[in-house]
Amino acid sequence: MSRRNQYRNRLGLSAITAVLFVVASLAFAGLGVVVSKNRVRAIGDEQRKVEDEMRLLNAEILALNNKIETSLTRDRVQPRLTSAGTLLRPITKHSLLILRPLPTPDASPTIAQTTPETH
Question: How far is it, in rounded angstroms, from Cα 50 to Cα 44?
Answer without folding.
Answer: 10
